[in-house]
Specification:
388 residues; alpha/beta; DNA polymerase, domain 1; 2 domains; ten-stranded mixed beta sheet; 11 helices; 32% helix; globular; binds S-adenosyl-L-homocysteine
């Protein structure tokens, strides 16, 4: 087998130089790269990898059907492969990347959070949510996060490392298998939506996330066959990466975590704003909407007495309308208080007034439900490494 390879903990930034305002991993941190896995590879690369093992190319398609169509990850179950082939492909292409270390449920079994341990020990979380009409999994793209938003639990611990493409895809495959097998009840058997709203900043792990989107959305057996429009990539607003994503030819939904429409406050709520301010974020979002035809989702965590004033609702509506016209939807998230935080959610009347003003400004606005609160699985509460 190949020697463990090391790589820098972070992908090269989309622009030269580190981001000075961010708490990235300690300089020079090097980690063992996650093992290569079938889900890292596109169809051609799978065939090449199988050929390297001395197996005929059709074995790659067989493996892909097991993994992407039947959602199987354990080579032992792939009994149509000769034993020798199973022994070869197991360690080379289907190593176990993530071990579930705990699964907790709430909301009557319709919300289920899984804590995963990767082979180098880092912990990440994903949350599966069942609704009457759909099943959604919220997944992590990085272990930890370097964006340092002060209200977000993951942001407090800094970035540990990027997840590999296959580590991202595995969270979805496993959720899809759980739904198919009745994990969300007998009536909901198909995972339909994926949101990159777990741990990490997806656009700071750009290539692996985009590759993962292809694995999730390519037709089986190349990929899991989800609709691109049912995949949401959420970002703090890494402007060059938004432009790059617009040019990928994908139809994924882009969510932008704005949290306030003014630079003065956003500089502290979303520190990367010091590098790419609100106007640039709106301009990049506009271009994404123009190129893809997709409506932008603006995420806004409503924090009592911090960003919930009527004038901010009015300014948000004005800017969203001016820059994005009808191609925008504001998603208010009642703040999920994180341990030790001085902040809290806004009172109901304040929230209602905020919604009313945004709508009066001509902008669609809804309040996100707060699934997973009591299992620390709600937005911004995922911080596996902070707990014992
Ligand atoms: N890095 C990406 C994904 C993060 S999580 C991004 O920032 O978009 C998805 C959403 O949850 C983001 O909008 C994030 O700002 C929000 N969030 C983080 N902490 C939160 C909290 N404590 N309460 C409510 N929403 C939170």
């Amino acid at each position: 087998m190949t020697e463990p390879v090391t790589e820098p903990a972070t992908e090269p930034a989309t622009e030269p130089g580190p981001l000075p305002v961010l708490s990235l991993s300690p300089a020079g941190t090097r980690r063992t790269r996650p093992a290569r896995h079938l889900a890292d590879l596109d169809t051609d690369a799978r065939r090449a990898a199988v050929a390297e093992l001395g197996l005929p190319a059709f074995r790659a398609d067989q493996l892909s059907r097991h993994y992407f169509s039947r959602l199987e990850s354990d080579p032992a179950t792939m009994t149509d492969l000769p034993a020798a082939a199973r022994d070869a492909v197991g360690p080379a292409l289907l190593p176990q990347l993530l071990a579930p270390t705990s699964v907790v449920e709430c909301d009557g079994g319709t919300t289920r959070k899984t804590l995963w341990r990767a082979n180098d020990g880092v912990l990440v979380e994903s949350v599966l949510m069942g609704y009457p009409d759909r099943a959604t999994v919220c997944i992590s793209s990085q272990a930890g996060c370097g964006m340092a938003c002060p209200f977000c639990a993951t942001g407090q611990g800094g970035l540990e490392r990027n997840l590999s493409t296959a580590e991202i895809v595995e969270q979805v495959r496993s959720a899809a298998a759980a739904v198919r097998d009745g994990g969300l009840g007998p009536d909901l058997r198909r995972l339909s939506n994926v949101v990159f709203m777990g741990m990490g900043e997806p656009l700071a792990n750009y290539r692996r996330v985009v590759d993962a989107v292809h694995r999730l959305c390519d037709a089986p057996p190349a990929g899991l066959g989800l609709s691109q429009r049912s995949v949401t990539v959420s970002t703090v607003g890494l402007v060059p990466a938004i432009h790059r994503l617009a040019d990928e030819g994908l139809q994924v939904t882009l969510a932008v975590s704005l949290h306030t429409p003014d630079d003065e406050l956003r500089d502290s709520l979303v520190p990367v704003n010091q590098r790419w301010p609100v106007a640039e974020v709106f301009a990049a979002a506009r271009r994404y909407a123009d190129v893809t035809g997709r409506r932008i989702s603006i995420e806004y965590a409503l924090i009592r007495d911090v960003n919930d004033q009527p004038w901010r609702a009015d300014l948000l509506a004005k800017l969203a309308h001016r820059h994005l016209g009808r191609l925008v939807h504001v998603n208010l998230i009642p703040l999920n208080p994180t341990p030790g935080s001085k902040w809290d959610a806004s009172p109901a009347p304040v929230q209602a007034e905020f919604v009313r003003r945004v709508r009066d400004g001509g902008v669609a606005c809804t309040v996100r439900d707060t699934r997973g609160r009591e299992i620390a699985g709600a937005c911004g509460q995922l911080a596996a490494t902070a707990r014992p």
